[in-house]
Description:
Elements lengths: L6 H18 L1 H6 L1 H28 L4 H33 L25 H6 L6 H7 L2 H15 L4 H26 L2 H16 L2 H5 L1 H27 L3 H8 L1 H9 L2 H14 L5 H14 L2 H17 L6 H17 L6 H12 L14 H39 L1
Helix pairs in contact: 1-9, 1-13, 3-7, 3-8, 3-9, 3-14, 3-15, 4-11, 4-15, 4-16, 4-17, 4-19, 8-14, 11-16, 11-19, 13-14, 13-19, 14-15, 14-19, 15-19, 16-17, 16-18, 16-19, 17-18
Bound molecules: aspartic acid.
Amino acid sequence: MKRFLSVENLTLIAIVLGIAFGYFFPKAAIATEVVGQIYLALLKMLIIPLVIASIFVAITSLEDTSELKSIGLLAFAYYFTTTALAVTLGLVLFNIFEPGAGTTLVANINTPNHIIQPKELGISDFLLSFIPTNIFAALAKGAILPIIFFTILFSVAALFILPPKRQTLFNFFDALNDSMMVLAKWVITLTPLGVFALLGATVAKNGLEPILNLYGYVLTVLAALAIHAALVLPAIAYLIGRFNPYSYFWQIKEAPLIAFSTASSSATLPVSIEVAETKGGVSKKVAGFVLPLGATINMDGTALYESIAVMFIANISGVELTLAQQITIFLTATFASIGAAGIPGAGLVMMTMILDSVGLPSEYIALIITVDRFLDMFRTAVNNWGDLLGTKIIDSLLARHFRSQHRGLAY
Length: 411
Ligand code: ASP
């Protein structure tokens, strides 16, 4: 009985009940939304201290900087390959199913102003945006990428100071990290309640009807996400990481379930680190570095979704896209997913950039806005699953590498 009442199982039940609650009792669901918001706020509260402490501990517990280089290179190779595969899969599936073909549906476009914020970002602005000129301002704003940039540099610098001094810093951040993990465990016990309230309110606000109206598009996105999550990523884990990805999923499923319910990779980060280390058997030094970075820049689900969404918008607005334009979509969707923040709806904002690159007006986002929150939950779960799988793959590769090195020394 105790096993059945685990947080994971209760979360699964809460997802189903939350959706039903929002559908049948929308008023009550909106009234209880605050419970979900409290849960989300508690998760968010942990993000910044955890990101800093986990990156610092991960980097300063490495043997030397060459180990950091290996982890960094492997992480970027994994992020880039899987994102490119996701966008390709999205484009291929779109060309097979062609949702929206033959229907031209451009009338009365009315987009809420807050959604359209065209990104006019030059390359120099983009590069400068990584560097926090005032780290405290970045911390106060919660600007994750600049915080990560600073923490990586700070941690690497600490590798070059006298060991006793480094030890002082290490002890502090290690203790901070451990305390945050204890807090994360406490917050995780509230997951079923939080998820129930969040999903109830989401369904109550958005309804389920728009999903039925855009079913061709919705199904294409869901099919592509499912293939990527259940076949493409596990194949990489199996072939390169040499472990069973499905039993790993079973161990860490709590995190993708929370990603699904919150539609936020960032809010899920504390849980991802906790489950990867305690249940998935990933070492602290790999999880602590690869997960925070992945939650911010590795978003396979978002990349795949954006490629399909832009093609769909082109289709229903009667625009025939050339191969060159599809290649442009491939490139911009990849970068847009890197630039998207790990918060609900971030992918939609970045989409203005892709529409722009192929000459479609950003107002056309209005055509798919009604189902965005629904698809956001699925793509965020895939984003999170991609990060957790990548972390385990890199951990397995490093463990194998060091085992063979030790064997080499023994002979
Ligand atoms: N909600 C997604 C995430 O947090 C980003 C997106 O909107 O696609 O990963």
